[in-house]
Amino acid sequence: MSLTNTLRQHWHSFRWPLSFTVWYVFGGLTATELGYGEAFFYVSVPMFFYALYRGVSPWTQKTAPYFHVVWWAMVVPFLLAIPLSVGWHFGAHMWHAVRT
Predict the structure, then answer these.
(1) What angle do CA 75, 81, 90 make, to 5 degrees?
(2) Is 58 left (phi over 0), alpha (psi -120 to 50) or beta?
(3) Cα angle: 29, vertex 31, 34; to 5 degrees
(4) Backbone angles phi and psi of 36, in degrees to 5
(5) Is pLDDT of 26 > 90?
């Protein structure tokens, strides 16, 4: 079984960690800018654990290899978070520079 076959077969499980990454980066930075950083944290913690639970469910049900689950549920969301957060941070600084 290849990584792409695992993704095709279990996309419904891996979409949760990927979507949480996008939520965490954009929602977290926006909430912090608006002054709701602490409230965002309390909302995000249960969402994180649910996304992790859904992401590793193919491995716990023994329908996908461990490495594939780690790749799609943990490594790829982390690699996605890096350019999203750097891009958002750079864009926010550029926007602030333009406004002032």
Answers:
(1) 150
(2) alpha
(3) 110
(4) -115, 30
(5) no
DSSP 3-state of 9: helix
**Under a CB-based contact definition with an 8 Å cutoff, are residues 12 and 51 in contact?**
no
The mean pLDDT of the chain is 87
Nearest to 64 by CA among 5, 6, 4: 6
* Distance, CA of 75 to CA of 68 (rounded, Å): 10
pLDDT digits (tens, 9 = 90+) for 41-52: 899 999 999 999
Map out the domains of the chain as residue ranges.
Answer: 3-99
Q: Give residues with Cβ within 8 angstroms of 22, minimum separation 6.
A: 80, 84
DSSP annotation string for 36-51 = -HHHHHHHHHHHHHHH
- Sign, CA dihedral 59-13-67-26, equals negative
End-to-end CA distance of the chain: 54
